[in-house]
Specification:
Helix content: 55-70%
Distance between the termini: 45 Å
Number of strands: 3
Structural class: mainly alpha
Order of helices and strands: HHHEHHEE
Strand content: 5-15%
Shape: elongated
Radius of gyration: 22 Å
């Protein structure tokens, strides 16, 4: 920054800035590839575990909020995809039993359990 003020040397600063943008774009691209890979792995694992026609809907809901309350996810899936709220807890139980989901906080009274992807 001092060179810009003293000598009006913008080229070095612009090159530095563009290098940073390029590096961040490459890191973001790699991250996106990892997320896509995880999505594909989870899609296959959920389908094999539940044998449900709702696999993609369930996975999309989980990816939109990886840490969730069971009741919130059930309501979301019902409103977005029309999947009955009774169906979702059974699917989530299967995923938890298979180790795909992890229970963070068990249900207590009227409070729903908190769950996340393992």
């Amino acid at each position: 920054m001092k060179a810009i003020s003293a000598e009006r040397e913008w080229n070095g600063w612009i090159a530095f800035f563009l290098k940073g943008i390029r590096q961040q774009a490459e890191e973001n691209s790699h991250r996106v590839q990892q997320i896509r890979s995880l999505y594909d792995e989870m899609k296959q694992a959920i389908q094999e575990t539940t044998r449900s026609q709702y696999t993609v809907h369930l996975l999309d809901a989980i990816f939109s909020k990886p840490i969730f309350r069971t009741s919130d996810l059930s309501a979301q899936i019902y409103h977005e995809f029309g999947i009955h709220e009774i169906t979702t807890p059974n699917l989530l139980r299967q995923l938890r039993d298979a180790g795909i989901l992890q229970e963070l906080k068990p249900s207590s009274g009227r409070r729903s359990r908190n769950t996340m992807l393992s």
